[in-house]
Inverse folding.
């Protein structure tokens, strides 16, 4: 493997290490539906009591989302057959195979990437008067990079000897890469704490049991370096921490499927929703759950704090720290990258003079992608609605998944048989997109970036989601005796 390929591989180990496996961020066409049921809790657990269904069973669902401002596929090559390729970046027979069907953004802004795969497993919600209960299961794989220095992906793409960046003193601070894959079992509860006349205030909470399958992070507090040529890199200061708990043998790089769960944790979602109802009808008089009527609304306003919590990994876990070290590395191109242990030993030998000084712990902790979210939903007229959401990350520690911000407006049309929504979103305050979601009875399919599927612009990411459910409407009983239903569905 020549030096050019080795250096690209060096950066790929950092970037692709946490970018592997990923393909809507919030399923806007589903979570804001009046038939959202258990899905509404993903945005705000207090939404559970405001749905038009009193029983909601999720059979299966999936979210795939990826977005970045590092690399892009030019519009002229933006076809799925060109984008979804397995030879774009891979190592084969000891060499690095590299396809040039994408390029980089040549500017000096800090970069980000975010990938999210969420599989919605079996879930059930039921509402009984002022109370709503739900149990749900998820499989999640989330990967993020935040405040990435602009020169990192450019040097990765070009090579270490990229002449414009030689003999420049780069001094970069506070950037991170985080990856985690885990499963959740969630218990949700919502309660109408106040419901009089046309005003209703609802509180909701979700408690999460977390089971970590893999995790890793690299937190760089300071990287002060100079690239002199393809063989020589001068580290004036390196202050970094990284940790990993992966399903691989660190010596041989073979896949290790056991133990499947390498860490455990706990999480919480909290939310409030204020609803201005269109009438003062009380849904609590009927005894049968199916007979309790749906209370339509003029508008509703919500606030939520989502994904508070973390997972501690104790199986196959290592934590390393390079604490304000420096080095004039004259043979940087000779470092071998044929196994995680070999990589760590090489850097230890170079910076500390032995192979194990950086090791500090056999456990790591990774925090969930905590966000604060504000929601607004307005019933325009009959079957027409207009919703909006602003979601902002709450980052409180370096080894935390970073979910970029989202601003979106979601006009939609909804009946029991069909629902159509056209979300217009701004991702990370810089990436506008138009989406489309279609619901036929209880099957929903959608995207928040329709243009990425049509090849209309440079490709920086895409998303796709679907959900299949079984649900029952409020105020409609399939079989009943005298006086059972007061508000049959129309």
């Amino acid at each position: 493997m020549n030096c050019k390929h080795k250096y690209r591989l060096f950066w790929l180990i950092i970037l692709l290490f946490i970018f592997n496996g990923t393909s809507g961020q919030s399923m806007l066409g589903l979570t804001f539906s009046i038939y959202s049921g258990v899905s509404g809790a993903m945005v705000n657990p207090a939404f559970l009591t405001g749905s038009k269904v009193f029983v909601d069973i999720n059979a299966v669902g999936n979210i795939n989302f990826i977005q970045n401002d590092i690399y892009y596929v030019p519009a002229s090559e933006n076809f799925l057959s060109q984008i979804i390729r397995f030879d774009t970046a891979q190592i084969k027979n000891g060499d690095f195979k590299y396809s040039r069907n994408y390029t980089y953004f040549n500017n000096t802004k800090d970069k980000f990437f975010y990938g999210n795969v969420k599989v919605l497993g079996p879930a059930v919600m039921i509402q009984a008067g002022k109370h709503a209960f739900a149990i749900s299961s998820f499989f999640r794989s989330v990967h993020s990079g935040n405040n990435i220095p602009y020169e990192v992906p450019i040097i990765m793409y070009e090579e270490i000897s990229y002449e414009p960046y030689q003999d420049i003193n780069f001094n970069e601070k506070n950037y991170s890469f985080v990856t985690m894959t885990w499963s959740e079992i969630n218990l949700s509860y919502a309660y109408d704490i106040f419901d009089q006349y046309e005003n209703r205030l609802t509180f909701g909470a979700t408690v999460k049991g977390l089971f970590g399958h893999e995790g890793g992070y690299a937190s760089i507090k300071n990287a002060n370096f100079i690239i002199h040529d393809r063989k020589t890199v001068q580290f004036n200061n390196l202050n970094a921490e990284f940790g990993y708990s992966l399903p691989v043998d660190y010596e041989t790089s073979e896949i290790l499927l056991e133990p499947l769960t390498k860490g455990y944790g706990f999480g919480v979602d909290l939310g409030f929703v204020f609803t201005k109802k269109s009438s003062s009808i009380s849904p609590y008089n009927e005894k049968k759950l199916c007979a309790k009527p749906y209370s339509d609304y003029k508008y509703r306003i919500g606030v939520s704090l989502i994904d508070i919590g973390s997972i501690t990994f104790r199986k196959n876990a290592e934590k390393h720290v390079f604490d304000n070290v420096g080095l004039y590395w004259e043979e940087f191109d000779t470092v071998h990258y044929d196994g995680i242990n070999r990589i760590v030993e090489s850097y230890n030998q170079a910076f500390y003079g032995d192979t194990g000084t950086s090791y500090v712990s056999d456990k790591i902790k990774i925090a969930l992608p905590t966000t604060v979210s504000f929601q607004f939903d307005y019933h325009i007229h009959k079957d027409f609605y207009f919703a909006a959401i602003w979601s902002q990350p709450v980052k409180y520690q370096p080894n935390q998944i970073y979910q970029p911000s989202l601003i979106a407006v979601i006009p939609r049309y909804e009946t029991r048989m069909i629902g159509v929504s056209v979300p217009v979103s701004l991702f990370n305050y810089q990436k506008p997109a138009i989406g489309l979601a279609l619901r036929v009875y209880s099957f929903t399919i959608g995207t928040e970036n329709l243009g990425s599927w049509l090849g209309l612009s440079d490709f920086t990411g895409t998303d796709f989601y679907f959900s299949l459910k079984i649900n029952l409407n409020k105020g409609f009983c399939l079989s009943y005796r005298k006086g059972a239903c007061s508000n049959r569905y129309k």
User: Anything to note?
Assistant: The domain at 3-473 is CATH 2.40.160 (Porin). Residues 3-15 form the longest helix (13 residues).
